[in-house]
Each structure stands twice: as structure tokens, then as C-alpha cells.
């Protein structure tokens, strides 16, 4: 690792040419000794950081490498516009410079591409366009292009001191070259120079070490901001406050009270033509090793000594050091296939994916922490594409209460806390309440707090807005440090090497499934976590029993007219879901197909049996236990 991340020894002289904002002239003490000499080296370094709210309003140039890419169009330019609108970045003393291989007129390009930017009369979009410019450098590894960029920055900044923030939205293969050329040619003469690096941070432990050596050789760790945008999401950030600011949760946030923690990421879309890129990484590198691991860290870390970035990052590293490495035998791997019933293509149908690809589009692992707080508690982490719904959440399952005479069914006496990250940010707390009536039956109830209603007038910032602002302030607490990544890759590299080398065959699942076949049994065996089947999986289990189908149908045919309306179908789905609403994609598709058959949202028993047979053909009978993936030759 870079020695630049370490503090100099006590008594060492300050760096002659600071890379951060120059500190104010040191105040002299009564004895004639400057204040700088009385401070520790760490304190001297902090004096150059812009941690205050006003510090982000200093003149600043933001340079975006990969200026015409998807991320820049959809997230980066809108984030900068919103920060200027909110007054968090200066409206006049800011320059937004795009850098790419060929020249582009950036103003009209951004105006055309950023249709999702919320316009506001307080900051006409034309004013934002006026701050945009572009430099065509011919390539990310050519010094001439960076010399041209340096001359452009000098011309638009003038003689006033100006900070510089560089965002690398480029392939990781050019991270090192860009960092070295920025350091050599484009450092701010007066003010800080900082580098924001977008994932992926390598493919394994060795590639990250190589990448880190390239960047840390020319930038101090305090100048590097490795971004994981999940750390900027509102609900993810709230995990910190929820845990440590509430007496209700902190005393029970441990192995004594918690049975399991489940961290879920699901997408109801496939690779959408990007299969060639995805196939080189897979779901573990794309989602699990970074986004979900950061969520896990916030769920499981110990309270940091303070809110200072160094203390927060130290607490994260201390947790990761206690996590055991992962092995392919402890992972569940899946890959979605085409589904004729839903008319969705499979992963191998993507033009960029090789016909023999075994890259997982679904993966689940169980993390275990060897410390006093969490020893014995499984952290089930799963991520997948081509599933039944779009969802990201954390589900904390508490242990069941001991038998209580007030409870009719003691098995139901367990609490759950759900932190919904997307969509529709929310917090849910499953509690138990006496059922109204003459009995003393206790039933599960749900207390919920939806951000859209609780904070109706509050501004919910996009993750990239928060990341840009914190980088401008020099606050690295929401960014990923090099020691964190060393530990993250230590945990995942053995699993990834086993997948790359042994090529285990993933379990195939139809597009739109709630989970792959066998996952429920695996989850129960490995983590003690029960998974709910989807609506179509429920129908698949009923398909072979006409009597059960008839009973289910008749129970929801309120008018006894032999047909089910759309509302009655939803009631049926809710019944199959143990009284819970069924929002998943399979129910929506079920209703869409029904309308496609011109049933006018009224389904007969014959139609119902047909759909059940289709469900059985698509989802099949689930094996009782999960068989480890079979390895094939390369």
C-alpha cells in the first residue's frame, strides 16, 4: 500500500509543496514559535482540508474524464447543476470541463442529453451551460492532451486561486495513466487537487494492488476519493443514525437478539444489450463486492471513535478484518434464461455474451463475523438480475420470543426491521399487537415510515450530489479507503478465482423468477433464512392438484359467478402471500397476459388452470436441497 496514506513521524517538517488547499499564515505564539510547529503532523494536514460548509463555495474547476458517457449524462451533470442551484457550489466561480478523445460542444450536448435535470427558474439552465467547456485530448494516455487541458484550465480560471476536482468515469485500465498525467500536468497552482475514481477498483486483490500502486505513486491517500455511490444513498446513510442514535436498536443490535441479517439487491431487467461488458465481471464484482459489502459494513461495524473520516474508515476496516474469506462451496450461483410465458430473452441471448458463458447473473453468499457482537449471526447477501422485481433492502430478523401465554402461535413472535433502499425509500418495523376482539391473540403488524410522506417537503439529494459535495469539502467518510478495499478483495478473491478457474455451472432460472430453483432450501440450510415464493411459484405448486386450484379459485370468487376480476386476483395473490401485498413482476405479467387473451381482466377457472400449468412449466418443481454447482472444464 501507499506510504502516502500514513502520517509523517512526529516532528517531521511540513510538506514543502502541499497538494491540498494552502493553510492560512501560521499565527505566532507568545514565545515566537509558530502555531504550525505546535500542532501534530495530522493536525497540520487537516488544516489544509476544506471541511466547512463555506469551503465548497470557493472557486473550483471540475474536470470529468469520460464526459460523454452514460454516467456523466445521467448523473454527473445533473448533480453539479443541482448543487449550483442549492448554493452548495458557486454559481459563477465554477468551471465544468469535459475531457475526451474527440472535440464535442459540451453545452448543447448536456442540454440535449440531460432531459432528466429538474430545471429551476432560480438557476436558468443557460447559466449552467455557460460554465461548461470541453477539451479533446486524443486519448487518456497522451501527455499532449493533458498539456492542452492544463492550458485550458489556466485560461478559464484566471489568476485567482482555484481548486481542482477530477472525476474519472473511464475504464479502470486507464486509471493509472490518467492519474499520473493529471499529477504531472494539471495540478492546481494554488488550491487542492483531488481525484474521484469510479468503480471498479480492480478484479481481485492483485489487480487492485497494482492499481493502487499506480494512483498512490502520484497522489496522497487524502487526495484520492474512491466512490461507491451506494454510500451516498439516503437510507444507507441512515443506517448509521438508526443504529447509533436510537436506544431502541443499539442495545439489541448483536448476536444475543438478532437471528440473521439479509441484504438484498434485485433487478427486474436483464443486461439490456450490455452483456459483453457484464460478462467480464459478473454479478459478484458488479454489485456484491462493492455496493452490498458497503451496506453490510454500515450494518455491522462498531461505533467509530468520532465522526472524523479517519475514525469512520478505521471502524470499517476493523470489521472487515474479522470477516472470513468466501469459498465457492458456500455460494449459490444462478443465471437467468429466456421465458416464453413472459416473452423475455435469456442471458445467453444477449449478442455480446458467449454461448458457453457460465457468468452468474445471480449470486448469494453468507458472511460471518468473528467478533463478540456478531459471532454466530449469518449475514445473507444476495444479488441478481432478471428477477421478479426491482428491490434493494436490508432485513434484520430478530430472534423469536420465548413462549408467552398471550401468543396463540409462539413462532410468529419475532420482530423484523426492514430498511428499503430502493424503490420508495422506507423503514418498516414488524411488531406484534393484540388483535381486536374478545380473545388475547397477538398478531403481526407493521409500523412504516416512508420518506416520501414523512419528509414530504424535504429535498432528497441524489447520491452523486452528496459525493461531489463531500469531495469538494475534503470529507472522505463516504468514500472507500485503500485499506477497506484490501480487506474487501481478501474476502472475495478466493471465491472469484474459483469461479473464473473452475467455471462452475450456475443454476438456471427463468426470467421473472423470485429466486432460482433450490435457493430457498440453500438459504434455509446455510443461513436459517426462509424465502417467500413468488406468485407464479405458488401457482406452480398448485398446478398438479385440481382440487386445490378449485378451492383457491372459489375462495376468492366473491360473486360466485365463475370468474375472477382483477381485484379478486389481487386478493388471491395477497392470500398466497400470507396477507401481504404481492407487488412482484410475476403478478403484473399474469394480469398483462390475461388482458392479452382479451379476458378483459376477468379470469375463468379454465384460464386459471391454464396459467397454473404455464407456471409449472416455467418454474417447475423445486428440488428439496441445493446441489453444489458442477464444475466444467475451461
TrEMBL record:
**PROSITE patterns with a match to the protein in the record:** EF_HAND_1, EF_HAND_2, G6P_DEHYDROGENASE
In terms of Gene3D superfamilies, this protein maps to: Dihydrodipicolinate Reductase, domain 2, EF-hand, NAD(P)-binding Rossmann-like Domain
- Main enzyme class: oxidoreductase
Query: Per UniProt, which keywords does this protein have?
Result: Calcium, Carbohydrate metabolism, Glucose metabolism, NADP, Oxidoreductase
> Which residues lie within the region annotated Disordered?
1-34
The record's GO molecular-function terms, alphabetically, read: calcium ion binding; glucose-6-phosphate dehydrogenase activity; NADP binding
Q: Which domain of life is it from?
A: Eukaryota
What are the boundaries of the signal sequence?
A: none
The pathway is: Carbohydrate degradation; pentose phosphate pathway; D-ribulose 5-phosphate from D-glucose 6-phosphate (oxidative stage): step 1/3
Sequence ranges of Pro residues compositional bias: 7-28
Q: Which InterPro entries match?
A: EF-hand-dom_pair, EF_Hand_1_Ca_BS, EF_hand_dom, G6P_DH, G6P_DH_AS, G6P_DH_C, G6P_DH_NAD-bd, NAD(P)-bd_dom_sf
**Swiss-Prot/TrEMBL catalytic activity:** D-glucose 6-phosphate + NADP(+) = 6-phospho-D-glucono-1,5-lactone + NADPH + H(+)
| Gene Ontology annotations of biological process type | glucose metabolic process; pentose-phosphate shunt, oxidative branch
Listed EC numbers: 1.1.1.49
Q: Which family does it belong to?
A: Belongs to the glucose-6-phosphate dehydrogenase family.
Query: What is the role of this chain?
Result: Catalyzes the rate-limiting step of the oxidative pentose-phosphate pathway, which represents a route for the dissimilation of carbohydrates besides glycolysis.
Name by which UniProt lists this protein: Glucose-6-phosphate 1-dehydrogenase
Q: What is the lineage of its organism?
A: Eukaryota, Sar, Stramenopiles, Ochrophyta, Pelagophyceae
Amino acid at each position: 500500500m501507499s506510504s502516502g496514506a500514513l502520517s509523517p513521524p512526529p516532528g517531521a517538517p511540513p510538506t514543502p509543496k502541499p497538494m491540498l488547499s494552502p493553510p492560512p499564515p501560521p499565527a505566532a505564539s507568545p514565545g515566537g514559535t509558530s502555531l504550525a510547529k505546535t500542532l501534530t503532523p495530522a493536525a497540520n494536514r487537516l488544516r489544509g482540508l476544506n471541511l466547512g460548509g463555506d469551503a465548497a463555495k470557493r472557486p473550483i474547476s471540475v474536470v470529468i474524464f469520460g464526459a460523454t458517457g452514460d454516467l456523466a449524462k445521467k448523473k454527473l451533470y445533473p448533480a453539479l447543476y443541482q448543487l449550483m442551484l442549492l448554493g452548495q457550489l458557486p454559481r459563477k466561480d465554477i468551471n465544468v470541463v469535459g475531457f475526451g478523445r474527440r472535440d464535442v460542444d459540451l453545452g448543447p450536448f448536456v442540454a440535449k442529453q440531460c432531459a432528466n435535470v429538474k430545471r429551476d427558474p432560480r438557476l436558468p439552465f443557460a447559466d449552467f451551460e455557460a460554465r461548461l467547456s470541453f477539451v479533446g485530448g486524443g486519448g487518456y494516455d497522451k501527455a499532449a492532451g493533458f498539456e492542452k487541458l492544463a492550458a485550458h484550465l489556466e485560461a478559464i480560471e484566471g489568476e485567482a486561486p482555484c481548486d481542482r476536482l477530477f472525476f474519472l468515469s473511464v475504464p479502470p485500465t486507464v486509471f493509472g495513466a490518467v492519474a499520473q498525467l493529471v499529477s504531472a500536468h494539471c495540478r492546481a497552482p494554488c488550491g487542492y487537487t483531488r481525484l474521484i475514481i469510479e468503480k471498479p477498483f480492480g478484479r481481485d486483490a492483485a489487480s487492485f494492488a497494482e492499481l493502487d500502486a499506480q494512483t498512490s505513486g502520484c497522489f496522497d491517500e487524502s487526495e484520492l476519493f474512491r466512490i461507491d455511490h451506494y454510500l451516498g444513498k439516503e437510507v444507507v446513510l441512515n443506517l448509521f443514525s438508526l443504529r447509533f442514535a436510537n436506544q431502541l436498536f443499539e442495545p439489541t443490535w448483536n448476536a444475543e437478539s438478532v437471528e440473521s441479517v439479509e441484504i438484498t439487491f434485485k433487478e427486474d431487467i436483464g443486461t439490456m444489450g450490455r452483456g459483453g461488458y457484464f460478462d467480464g465481471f459478473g454479478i459478484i464484482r458488479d454489485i456484491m463486492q462493492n455496493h452490498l459489502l458497503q451496506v453490510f459494513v454500515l450494518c455491522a461495524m462498531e461505533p467509530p471513535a468520532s465522526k472524523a473520516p479517519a475514525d469512520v474508515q478505521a471502524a470499517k476496516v476493523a470489521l472487515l478484518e474479522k470477516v472470513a474469506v468466501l469459498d465457492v462451496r458456500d455460494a449459490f450461483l444462478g443465471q437467468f434464461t429466456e421465458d416464453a410465458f413472459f416473452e423475455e430473452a435469456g442471458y445467453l441471448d444477449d449478442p455480446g455474451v458467449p454461448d458457453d458463458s457460465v457468468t452468474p447473473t445471480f449470486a448469494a453468499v453468507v458472511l460471518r463475523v468473528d467478533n463478540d457482537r456478531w459471532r454466530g449471526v449469518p449475514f445473507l447477501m444476495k444479488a441478481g438480475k432478471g428477477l421478479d422485481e426491482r428491490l434493494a433492502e436490508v432485513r434484520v430478523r430478530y430472534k423469536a420470543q420465548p413462549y408467552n401465554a398471550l401468543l396463540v402461535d409462539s413462532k410468529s413472535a419475532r420482530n423484523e426491521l426492514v430498511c428499503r433502499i430502493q424503490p420508495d425509500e422506507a423503514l418498516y418495523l414488524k411488531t406484534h399487537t393484540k388483535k381486536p376482539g374478545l380473545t388475547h391473540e397477538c398478531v403481526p403488524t407493521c409500523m412504516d415510515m416512508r420518506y416520501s410522506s414523512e419528509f414530504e417537503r424535504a429535498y432528497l439529494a441524489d447520491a452523486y450530489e452528496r459525493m461531489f459535495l463531500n469531495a469538494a469539502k475534503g470529507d472522505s467518510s463516504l468514500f472507500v479507503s485503500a485499506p477497506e478495499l484490501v480487506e474487501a478483495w481478501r474476502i472475495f478473491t478466493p471465491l472469484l478465482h474459483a469461479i473464473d478457474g473452475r467455471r462452475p455451472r450456475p443454476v438456471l432460472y427463468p426470467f421473472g423468477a423470485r429466486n432460482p430453483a433450490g435457493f430457498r432450501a440453500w438459504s434455509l440450510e446455510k443461513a436459517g433464512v426462509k424465502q417467500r415464493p413468488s406468485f407464479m411459484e405458488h401457482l406452480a405448486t398448485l398446478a398438479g392438484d385440481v382440487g386445490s386450484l378449485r378451492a383457491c379459485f372459489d375462495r376468492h370468487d366473491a360473486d360466485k359467478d365463475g370468474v375472477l376480476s382483477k381485484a379478486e386476483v389481487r386478493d388471491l395473490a395477497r392470500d398466497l402471500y400470507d396477507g401481504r401485498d404481492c407487488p412482484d413482476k410475476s403478478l403484473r405479467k399474469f394480469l398483462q397476459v390475461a388482458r392479452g387473451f382479451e379476458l378483459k381482466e376477468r379470469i375463468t377457472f379454465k384460464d386459471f388452470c391454464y396459467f397454473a400449468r404455464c407456471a409449472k412449466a416455467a418454474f417447475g418443481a423445486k428440488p428439496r436441497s441445493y446441489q453444489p454447482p458442477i464444475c466444467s472444464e475451461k
